[in-house]
């Protein structure tokens, strides 16, 4: 079995799908929201480039991915409104193994964009772009120095390859 291609979540919206069984991951996103907001605000202050690039590693196929994206957009919008910062474009890359079903996420994008417009009620919304990046994150995904924020929530338990021993692991 080639884990990177064969190991994936149950696709679709059936009772056994990840879409229907990802409440624990959703709870983790809710609990870590203040930390994410703080980090995004700090990045807005320090960012010299007009485009902030964000990668969600192991995003899978549920609404949790768009919840994360929404939290980043809201934090940047708040920064723009409060500090009259320079307009920032957001580039999101949603990463997961090629065998996972990105269709649910991409089919939800129009509804998601409409909800962002409604939530902001006239406030500044940064332009944002969302793309899929189907690959293992154990290889370089994007050019060196091009990503401002990597996000990983609950994906390390699904490692697609065994890590090489390190000096520290040999001492334990």
From TrEMBL:
InterPro entries: MeTrfase_7, SAM-dependent_MTases_sf
Highest rank taxon of the organism: Eukaryota
GO MF annotations, alphabetized: S-adenosylmethionine-dependent methyltransferase activity
GO terms, biological process: methylation
Pfam families: Methyltransf_7 (PF03492)
Protein name stated in the entry: Jasmonate O-methyltransferase
